[in-house]
Amino acid sequence: MTAPAVRVDTTSASIVYIAIGSNLERPVQQVLQARDALAGLPETRLLGFSPLYRNPAVGPGQQPEYVNAVAAVRTRLAPHDLLDALQAIEANQGRVRGPVRGLPRTLDLDLLLYGDREINDQRLTVPHPRMQQRAFVLKPLLDIAPDLDVPGLGSVTTLLCAVSEASLERIDESEAVTASREHAR
Ligand code: A4P
Ligand code: MG
């Protein structure tokens, strides 16, 4: 079988922000493993990775708490090819995607921002349509991109002021380092 061609944007690379979330099967390790997988994507360089934040699940029903973070990458992958690559990383880390959305997951990778592009089609909405409601996205995004503006919405600083970040617990360096060692074993 021939692998599908990856469309590379040859004109320029774009700065892209990706939200990472996990609430199953050792979430800290899942997030760190995802960081390594993002760093290994073709035509892509990892520019930054935020601290990790533990926080209660948002949404209906009782769920284990999440660990969330945000990554910044520079990539020449076109948006839909990047989405394919993110979904492949999710699948590789045991993400089961069913007809019901919002269920607990080993790994969720959401494309928050792709340069200053606005995309709205069947597969992809960028900027991510719920990012402005979510402290677990805005706080780590602000950590790595303090001067960032979200197209159509304004500065991340202003957006974060409008939501409560009280439920976010920043995960200690030492806990992350221990988890990282376990993940490397
Ligand atoms: N899709 C459209 N736009 C995008 C985008 N910008 N990035 C499409 C990624 N995917 C995008 O996603 C469903 C479809 O959305 C994809 O096939 C893609 O074509 P999914 O990952 O299969 O399903 P999902 O994750 O259940 O849906 P979604 O919309 O990503 O869920 P949410 O809204 O992200 O909610 N609480 C805490 N504390 N932390 C969390 O991380 N996450 C969720 C998931 C709920 N509660 C949470 C957290
Ligand atoms: Mg998702």
Structural description of this entry:
The chain is of the alpha+beta class and 185 residues long. The chain has a single domain (14-184), classed as 7,8-Dihydro-6-hydroxymethylpterin-pyrophosphokinase HPPK (Alpha-Beta Plaits, 2-Layer Sandwich). The chain has five helices and ten strands; from the N terminus they run βαβββαβββαββαβα. It has helices at 27-39, 79-92, 135-144, 156-161, 173-184; strands at residues 14-22, 44-49, 53-55, 66-75, 108-114, 119-120, 125-126, 149-150, 154-155, 169-170. Strands 1, 2, 3, 4, 5 and 10 form a six-stranded antiparallel β-sheet that branches. Strands 6-7 form a two-stranded antiparallel sheet. Strands 8-9 form a two-stranded antiparallel sheet. Strand 6 (119-120) and strand 7 (125-126) form a beta hairpin. Helix 1 (27-39) packs across helix 5. The protein is globular and about 40 Å long. The mean pLDDT is 92. Magnesium ion (MG) binds next to strand 5. 6-(adenosine tetraphosphate-methyl)-7,8-dihydropterin binds at residues 21, 55, 57-59, 66, 68, 97, 101-102, 108, 110-111, 123-126, 128, 130, 136.
The whole-angstrom Rg is 16 Å
Low-pLDDT residue intervals, each spanning 5 or more residues = none
Calculate the terminal CA-CA distance, rounded to whole Å.
34 Å
Domain module tally: 1
Q: How many helical stretches?
A: 5
Number of strands: 10
Question: Element order, helices and strands?
Answer: EHEEEHEEEHEEHEH
Largest sheet: 6 strands, antiparallel
Bound molecules: 6-(adenosine tetraphosphate-methyl)-7,8-dihydropterin, magnesium ion
The percentage helix is: 25-40%
Mean pLDDT over all positions: 92
